[in-house]
Structures are given as structure tokens and as C-alpha cells.
Amino acid sequence: MEQRALLALGLAALIIVGIAVEGGEVSYDGRSLIIQGQRKLLFSASIHYPRSTPQMWAGLIEKAKEGGIDVIQTYVFWSLHEPVQGQYDFSGRADIVRFIKEIQAQGLYASLRIGPFIEAEWNYGGLPFWLHDVPGIVYRCDNEPFKMHMQNLTTKIVNMMKSESLYASQGGPIILSQIENEYQLVEDAFHEKGPPYVKWAAQMAVELQTGVPWMMCKQFDAPDPIINTCNGMKCGESFPGPNSPNKPWLWTENWTTQYQAYGEDPITRSPQDIAFQVALFVARNGTLVNYYMYHGGTNFGRTASAFTTTSYYDDAPLDEYGMSYTFDSHINVENNTRLITTSKKFDEPEMWEEFRDPIPKFVVTSMRSNKLLEHMNTTKDKSDYLWYTFSYQHESSNSKAVLKVQSAGHVLHAFVDGVLVGSAHGNHKRPNFRLENTIPLTNGSNNISLLSVTVGLRDSGAYLERRAAGLRRVKIHDIQKSSDLTNYRWGYQTRFDAPAENVSLGLNLRSMGKGEVWVNGQSIGRYWASFLTPQGSPYQTWYHVPGSFLKPKDNLLVILEEQNGSPLGISLDIISTV
Ligand SMILES: *[C@@H]1O[C@H](CO)[C@@H](O)[C@H](O)[C@H]1NC(C)=O
Ligand SMILES: *[C@@H]1O[C@H](CO)[C@@H](O)[C@H](O)[C@H]1NC(C)=O
Ligand SMILES: *[C@@H]1O[C@H](CO)[C@@H](O)[C@H](O)[C@H]1NC(C)=O
Ligand SMILES: *[C@@H]1O[C@H](CO)[C@@H](O)[C@H](O)[C@H]1NC(C)=O
Ligand SMILES: *[C@@H]1O[C@H](CO)[C@@H](O)[C@H](O)[C@H]1NC(C)=O
Ligand SMILES: *[C@@H]1O[C@H](CO)[C@@H](O)[C@H](O)[C@H]1NC(C)=O
Ligand SMILES: *[C@@H]1O[C@H](CO)[C@@H](O)[C@H](O)[C@H]1NC(C)=O
Ligand SMILES: CC(=O)N[C@H]1CO[C@H](CO)[C@@H](O)[C@@H]1O
Asked: What is the pLDDT of residues 359-379, one digit of tens each?
């Protein structure tokens, strides 16, 4: 059993007017958004379509509606939709049209935050990595290559929504869209290239003629007619208001809790605090409050940003598995207890097949360079893993030496002649780190293999295209040489049958170290059970296995473990609340 603090929305005192979704322009004045001639006080909920499965969407939206929500807000995830330049994907979890139509089917409004830079604890802030190799590009400023690609994607999304008649002006559910995201936080870093970009982005968006207002969050000087909005926990107190008396007070992100990074203590926010800030914001003329997140969900695959956990906002009103909390009719909230029952143990060695990838030596590497290559630029973010190998000539009977490595991030495992000699890693606040280990050397040629690992790309800050990861400096005595290679795997796999009931399932990975898990070929995300919080336990032990990833029989579980975790301690557990 795991005791969990509970967040709920303290809105009992506020009366919400029922909504009928019909066509019509959306406009606004200083008091509110006006839809079909009616003023609206709106409660909005962030649910991100790729952080759950299409099979879960209807249930999540339905529960949000039962919770008194009028609007579902989502970002648009560029890197998911255009993983390769010009090759688009709108299928499965990327089926944004299906998601918006599900919102519409349940009679709710939608708020579409296109960005297309979104931050969102998403890998690279939602930018596809191929942008990095566009000649002359500088992201998010008055830079022609960036603006061209940003306009192209924004136009594509808007046209897609229009062709499906999804804007409220066409009878659809979308009442708001967002361009850029919290730009003011980085604007100064771009000097004279910042302000013209804000104006350009505003004009580009407005010219797309969606018939519904555009917002810029955390952008006090958002050009007319774009509405500047507030993000944060305390917008009731901190927001100085819109930059024109003719614009309404909108709160785009009121953080219900906060995202988690590996190795950091859990963060909780009391429902009373949320309720107080919401009431204060409404008292100060606020007419839209969005709960970020209402359902956080799962950072499947390699979609989490640097050091962010696979479970996202598990303490939101709907937990990672989509389960809601029970609370009484006041705003008092009972602390829900999560109940875990083991459905399947994987504790017999015969269940597993094990593969160990050989530790590559310099002589077998196909790619050579006489300097240390930048990690992301070399992997192109196709993999977390990059080997730096070199052959070190040692002419001495003294077998002791010291290996010193400086890395810009995020993790390093060092091997000498195939034997692990040390590991080190950074963290969310400081991705860079040093490794210093005594190593044994033999007289003659020694094979040094350094496995550099990224744990998601950064999602925030100016000049993301200039960020570096991987090894910066390697020393043994004074000889230095390096090269890189391919992926490295210690793989494990087992087959199992799904539990008969229709239940929420989590894979208990407490016995493992660090790696990634696939269920029938679909990655359920990275895990990192060996990175303990200051309290001495992993932040995340259970990893969500959505029902739609499973077959009734003969499911294949594949685990890539890069440390020395034991798969015999893994179990598939049923998650419920009492
Ligand atoms: C709920 O949990 C919080 C944090 O653990 C604790 O401070 C509070 O007393 C609990 N409330 C109840 C009613 O158990
Ligand atoms: C812009 O997007 C269209 C598809 O919407 C694509 O055909 C075109 O190649 C894109 N241009 C660039 C420069 O990416
Ligand atoms: C709220 O709106 C009223 C009427 O427009 C105005 O008088 C008042 O100053 C506004 N409150 C704040 C905090 O801006
Ligand atoms: C990335 O690699 C290219 C060549 O492949 C090189 O021109 C460029 O300078 C590198 N960028 C960084 C940031 O290392
Ligand atoms: C190292 O090995 C070489 C070749 O086997 C040998 O000639 C040399 O004496 C050895 N050096 C030491 C210090 O053991
Ligand atoms: C390093 O690799 C080379 C090439 O495979 C091999 O000849 C040599 O014995 C290795 N060195 C050690 C100390 O294992
Ligand atoms: C069973 O699964 C479906 C699809 O995921 C879901 O809609 C339904 O609510 C689930 N039923 C129960 C009893 O959990
Ligand atoms: C704008 C704002 O209110 N931001 C706050 C959001 O919540 C975090 C965590 O409590 C604060 O640190 C921010 O100042």
C-alpha cells in the first residue's frame, strides 16, 4: 500500500453554467470570453493525448466532465507528428483529430496549444531533433529557417483542424489556441532578435484566421489581439492582469502539483491551496482556469525530457492510470490509498532469455574521429546510447592508473577490457558530472569503452540547439583518443499472459537498475530504479502498462538493463484505489 496525498478541485462554491457546443465566432472583452454571444466562466483541464492511449481518452474526458470541467486543453507535440522532416504521423497516440473529436462528442470545449515549442517536460520541448541540422538555424527568435519551419507546422495543424471543422467558428469544439510558450522567460537572451519574433509569431498566427482567439502564456507584451495569460501556482496573487482592459483574465497553467525528476523527493500541493488561488483569481475577474495537469499520464518510450520520470503528474486529480480520487462534498479530501496486488511474478529464471551485447572495442568500431564528438549530434537522438572507445597503450608492470572523465551529461558507465570499472551520472539540476576511478591496466594494449547515456533531451532555456551532452574530456595519464559506435544492449525478455480482468497494470521494477521496457514492441518508457531520492527510495517503482498494449496470451516483455538489476524480482501488479 502506498499512501498518497490527494489533489482535488475546490470549486464547490462556484456555480458553473452548463455548456452547449454550437458554431459561432469566439470573441472576448475585458470581462470574459464570449462564445455564441454568451459570457463564459470556464474550468479547463490539461490532458495530453500522447501521454495515454486512444482507448483511455473517452474515459479520461468523461471523468474530467464529471469533475465539472468545461474545456480540455492540450499541447500539440511536433516531434511526435514530424519525427523525420516532411514525414508526418497522426496515428495511434498521435491521432490528435480523434482526440479533439472525442472532446466534441462529450460536449466539451477544446483549447489547442500549438506552440510549436511547448516545453512540457517533453523531449527537446517538442521540437523534432532534425531541426538541429537545419543550416543557420537558431530556435525561437527572429531567424528565417526557424520561422519557416514553425510557420509550416503551425499552418499544417491549423489547416488540419479547419478541414475537420474543429474550430468553434465552424461548429467545432476548439475555442482557443496558443502560439509560442512562456517566451518572455528567454526573450532577453535573444537581444534584438527577440521582440520582432514575438510580433512575427503573433501576426503569423492571426493571419491563419481560425475564428477563435490566440493566447501567449507568460508574455506580458503579447501583441493585440493576442491574449497574454498566466501560468503558475499562484496566479490569484501574482498575475498583474492582461495588457489591455479589453482582454480577459485567463490562467493557462495552474499547476496541480509538479512534474518529477529522478532522484528528487515527491512534490505535493494541497487542494486547499489550489482552491484558494482559484477563488482569488476568479474574484479578480478571472474567467478561465486550467488545471495543469488534470491527467498527467505516462511519458512512453523516449518522450520524457532530461531526467523527467516516466510517470507524469501522478498526483493530478486523475492519476497516471486514469483513476479518480474520491472526495467528500466539501473541499476536504480524503487521502486515497493506492492498492497494489501482484498479478504475475517473473521470478523463475526459465521465464527469461538473456542476451548480453558485447562491450565494443576500438578495433571493431566503424566510426572514427580524433576528437570527442558531441553526444546528441552523433546519435541524432535515435538512441540514448553512445560508445566512446579507445585503445590505450600501457608500457608498465604497474597495473594501477586513474581514469578521469568529464561529461556534459547524463550518465556514464566505464569499462576496461570488458569489465565495469565505474559509473556516474548527473541530475535534473546539474546534468554535467565527473567520473574518477582507479582502473587496472595490463602491460600492452588496453581497451577502454565508455558508454555515455542521455536520459531525454532538455526542454527549456534559450539556444537549445547549442546544448551539449556526452564526454567532454577523458584522461589517463595524458594520452587521449576516442571514437564512437552503435547501441549497446544487455537485453532480457520473457513471455506472459495478460490477467483476465480489465484492470490497471503496473510493472514493478524495484529490483532493476536503469534502462527501458518494451511490451509487445511498444516502449512503456525509461526506468531508473537505482537513482534514489534523498529519502533513500526510487521516486517511481511501478511503470504503467496500458491494457491496449497487451494481448490475452503470449505477451512479450523485453527489458534493456544497463546496470546489474535482477529481472527475477519483477512483477506485474494490479493497481487500484480503496
Ligand atoms: C493526508 O496526507 C497529508 C500528507 O501526507 C497529511 O498531512 C494529512 O494529515 C493527511 N490527511 C488525512 C485526513 O489523513
Ligand atoms: C511544409 O509543409 C508541407 C506539408 O504541409 C511540406 O510538403 C513541405 O515540404 C514543408 N516545407 C518545408 C520547408 O518543410
Ligand atoms: C475587475 O473588473 C471590474 C469591472 O471591469 C474593474 O472595475 C476591476 O478593477 C477589475 N479588477 C481587477 C483586479 O482588475
Ligand atoms: C554536429 O555535427 C556536424 C557535422 O556532423 C558539425 O558540423 C557540427 O558542428 C556539430 N555540432 C555540434 C553542436 O557539435
Ligand atoms: C611489457 O610487455 C612487453 C612485451 O611483452 C615486454 O617486452 C616488457 O618487458 C613488458 N614491460 C613490463 C614493464 O613488464
Ligand atoms: C584489446 O583488444 C585487442 C584487440 O581485440 C586485443 O588484442 C587485446 O588483447 C585487448 N587487450 C586486453 C588487455 O584485453
Ligand atoms: C475496461 O476497459 C475499457 C477500455 O480500456 C474501458 O473503457 C472500461 O472502462 C474498462 N472497464 C472497467 C470495468 O474497468
Ligand atoms: C508564476 C507562478 O506563480 N509560479 C509559481 C508556480 O509554482 C511554483 C512552485 O510552487 C513556484 O515556484 C512558482 O513561483
From this structure: 888 888 878 787 888 999 999
Nearest Cα neighbor of 568 from 352, 251, 279 is 352
Strands 367-368 and 411-416: unpaired
Query: DSSP string spanning 71-100?
Result: EEEEE--HHHH-SBTTB---SGGG-HHHHH
d(CA 33, CA 339) in angstroms, rounded, equals 42
Structural contact between residues 526 and 456, judged by C-beta atoms closer than 8 angstroms? yes
Distance 399 CA to ligand 6 centre (A): 15
Find the catalytic residue in 102, 119, 187, 253: 253
Distance CA 275, CA 127 (A): 34
Q: How far is the CA of 248 from the centre of ligand 3 (A)?
A: 10
374 in active site: no
Is 443 in contact with 396 (CB distance < 8 Å)?
yes
Ligand index nearest the alpha carbon of residue 408: 4
* pLDDT of res. 575: 92
Q: What is the pLDDT of residues 301-348, one digit of tens each?
A: 999 999 999 999 998 999 999 998 655 555 755 566 788 999 999 999
Distance 49 CA to ligand 8 centre (A): 25
Rounded CA separation 123/174 (Å) = 26
Interacting residues of 546 by C-beta distance below 8 A, sequence separation 6+: 52, 53, 55, 56, 298, 524
Residue ranges around ligand 3 (CB below 6 Å): 30, 241, 284-285
Closest to 448 in 3D by CA, of 411, 409, 487, 421:
421
Buried b (16+ CB within 10 A) or exposed e, 93-124: bbbbebbbbbbbebebbbbbbbbbbbbbbbbb
Cα distance between the two ends of the chain: 10
Burial bucket for residue 27 (CB in 10 Å: 0-12, 13-18, 19+): middle
Q: For ligand 7, say whether the CB of 54 is within 6 Å of any of its atoms.
A: no
Element of type H or E holding 344: strand 337-345
User: Does residue 99 contact residue 80 with C-beta atoms inside 8 Å?
Assistant: no
Helix (H) and strand (E) counts for the chain?
9, 30
387-426: per-residue pLDDT in tens? 898 888 888 878 888 898 999 999 999 999 999 999 999 9
Q: Which of 238-246's residues contact partners 24+ apart within 8 Å by CB, and which partners?
A: 239/281, 239/284, 241/284, 241/285, 242/30, 244/30, 245/30, 246/28, 246/29, 246/30
Quick one: which of 345, 505, 476 has its CA closest to 414? 476
Question: Are the beta carbons of 100 and 163 closer than 8 angstroms?
Answer: no
Active-site entry in 82, 119, 121, 182: 182
Cβ density class 267-276: b for 16+ within 10 Å, e for less = eebebeebbb
486: pLDDT strictly greater than 80: no
| Catalytic annotation present for 66 | no
Q: Please report how many Cα atoms fall inside a 13 Å half-sphere around the Cα of residue 118, on the Cβ side.
A: 28
**Is 402 within 8 Å of 439 (Cβ atoms)?**
yes
Domains of the chain: 2-337 (3.20.20.80), 343-354+500-576 (2.60.120.260), 370-494 (2.60.120.260)
Q: Kindly report the three-state secondary structure assignment for every residue of 350-412.
A: HHEEEEECCCCCHHHCCEECCCCCCHHHHHCCCCCEEEEEEEEEECCCCCEEEEEEEECCCEE
Query: Ligand 8: distance of its center to the CA of 311 in Å?
Result: 21
Q: Take residue 575 and report the three cell numbers written for it.
A: 493497481
